[in-house]
């Protein structure tokens, strides 16, 4: 009997998905928005944490520089004191990275296939304390290398990232609580109102002698299915958005290394709304009994 | 089967039922009559557990309403069925699905549901409509579906609230005949109606006449056969 009730609740949603489409999309939209905020917060927080204390310089050589000389200069740069990361790009590898960032619809190569990009190198230095003088001196050393056309270095951006990282870590808990509350209110109320449209049917079931269990269990199961479908759709979209965004942020000019979101976040984004929806189903059942 | 002693009910300051007492035995048939606002529907709702018992005592199919907990209300409703004036059937579901509902909620095996529903549909001449959605049925057909649902699980008591309110005279008489047949098989029936002609058509039935809306302790002729005045109200 119990299994039959569970299946009837699930079937009520799956056999008439169009009747619940609006609710499922509403749940999806809410979870998607909250998930985007959570992913952004967690991803950026991780990126900031990794970039704290590291100042990055991007070095551009003149076009047509001697590859052998550039290779020696790159080795010298890698050996500079305080270097914690170094990424070197030949014109070919830089073009490949740019193609990957711009997508299939844009072609960075000049007409005739000429590569406009020079040799470049991204260097990350560990900052000794808050020593801004170190950053300026390093900039001068790099810019003075023979054949180097330009060195980009933005201490203001680094400070801003550092501040944002600090703010992010302090705001993480309140933000998470706010997001959970938002999901709870929107998902819960949307599902509850959808189920209460069946008030007449529930009333008839009560009048013919249905137990509270007979009425409540299918409602809870149906609501959980709505929550699961809605959040599942949202998480699928989120995974797609994440793969697109993380790839672009990891390339020039931001070089933000966005690590994959943790498994618990995906599980929470699906499990949380599903649980909230099930509770809303329970609330609807109790409300219809009142 | 049904015993009511000193039952009174008020909505705010307005007394709707006052010191009502009557009894109905197994297989008994009683009309509940009175003008609009006299408390017919209120009494039926109390007896079915949809309204709380305020004053008095009511023993309904073995259930003491004063002692019945809300969580056990379903037990009362498995012994007492109701036919509503507005049918209260699920329009998008088929006749079979609607009629089977009381058995389905009891967890009755499917084969037994099918047998029982088929038997009731035959008795009420609904077999040909069995798989049609109720929304496609005429008013009289929907009323028969409601009655089939009310009797399918073999209730000890059936309450019927103006079941002929939407029917013409011929259908009303046919409905009365059907209810009398179920009554003869042991189901006690309490049928609210303000149709005096219908009451006159069953002269052996008990008649409970309720008074007007305001408190009127003498406004009930309990268990007394009212004098049906067909010419006054009936419009067959």
From TrEMBL, chain B:
The keyword Metal-binding does not apply. GO terms for cellular component: plasma membrane. Keywords: ATP-binding, Nucleotide-binding. GO terms for molecular function: ATP binding; ATP hydrolysis activity; transmembrane transporter activity. Gene3D superfamilies: P-loop containing nucleotide triphosphate hydrolases (3.40.50.300). The keyword Chloroplast does not apply. It comes from the Bacteria. Residues 2-236 form the ABC transporter domain. InterPro entries: AAA+_ATPase, ABC_transporter-like_ATP-bd, ABC_transporter-like_CS, ABC_transpr_LolD-like, P-loop_NTPase. This is ATP-binding cassette domain-containing protein.
């Amino acid at each position: 009997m119990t299994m039959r009730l569970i299946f009837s609740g699930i079937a009520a949603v799956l056999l008439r998905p169009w009747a619940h489409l609006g609710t499922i999309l509403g749940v999806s939209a809410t979870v998607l928005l909250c998930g985007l905020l959570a992913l952004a917060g967690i991803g950026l927080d991780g990126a900031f944490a990794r970039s704290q204390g590291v100042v990055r310089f991007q070095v551009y050589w003149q076009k047509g520089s001697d590859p052998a000389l550039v290779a020696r200069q790159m080795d010298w740069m890698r050996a500079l004191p305080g270097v914690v990361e170094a990424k070197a790009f030949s014109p070919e590898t830089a073009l490949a990275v740019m193609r990957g960032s711009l997508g299939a619809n844009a072609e960075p190569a000049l007409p005739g296939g000429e590569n406009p990009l020079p040799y470049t190198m991204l260097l990350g230095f560990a900052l000794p304390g808050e020593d801004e003088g170190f950053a300026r001196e390093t900039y001068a050393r790099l810019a003075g290398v023979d054949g180097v056309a330009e060195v980009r270095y933005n201490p203001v951006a680094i400070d801003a990232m550092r501040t944002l990282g600090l703010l992010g870590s302090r705001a993480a808990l309140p933000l998470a609580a706010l997001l959970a509350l938002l999901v709870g209110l929107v998902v819960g109320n949307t599902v509850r109102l959808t189920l209460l449209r069946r008030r007449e049917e529930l009333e008839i079931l009560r009048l013919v002698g249905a137990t509270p269990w007979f009425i409540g269990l299918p409602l809870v199961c149906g609501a959980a299915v709505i929550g699961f479908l809605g959040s599942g759709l949202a998480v699928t979209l989120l995974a797609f958005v994440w793969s697109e965004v993380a790839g672009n942020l990891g390339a020039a000019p931001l070089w933000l290394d966005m690590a994959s979101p943790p498994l618990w976040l995906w599980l929470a984004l699906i499990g949380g709304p599903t649980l909230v929806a099930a509770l809303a189903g329970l609330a609807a059942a109790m409300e219809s009994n009142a | 089967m049904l015993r009511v002693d000193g039952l009174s009910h008020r909505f705010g300051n307005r007394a709707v039922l006052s010191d009502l007492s009557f009894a109905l035995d197994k297989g008994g048939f009683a009309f509940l009559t009175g003008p609009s606002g006299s408390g017919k529907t209120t009494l039926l709702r109390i007896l079915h557990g949809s309204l709380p018992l305020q004053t008095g005592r009511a023993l309904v199919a073995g259930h003491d309403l004063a002692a019945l907990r809300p969580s056990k209300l379903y037990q009362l409703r498995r012994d007492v069925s109701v036919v509503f004036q507005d049918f209260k059937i699920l329009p998008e579901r088929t006749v079979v699905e609607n009629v089977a509902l009381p058995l389905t909620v009891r967890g009755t095996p499917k084969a037994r549901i099918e047998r029982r529903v088929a038997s009731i549909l035959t008795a009420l001449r609904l077999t040909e409509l069995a798989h049609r959605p109720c929304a496609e049925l005429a008013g009289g057909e929907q009323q028969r579906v409601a009655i089939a649902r009310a009797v399918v699980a073999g209730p000890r008591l059936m309450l019927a609230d103006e079941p002929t309110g939407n029917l013409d005279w011929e259908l009303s008489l046919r409905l009365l005949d059907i209810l009398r047949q179920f009554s003869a098989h042991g189901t006690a029936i309490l049928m609210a109606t303000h149709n005096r002609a219908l009451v006159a058509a069953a002269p052996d039935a008990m008649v409970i006449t309720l008074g007007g809306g305001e408190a009127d302790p003498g406004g009930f002729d309990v268990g007394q056969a009212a004098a049906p005045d067909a010419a006054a109200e009936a419009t067959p």
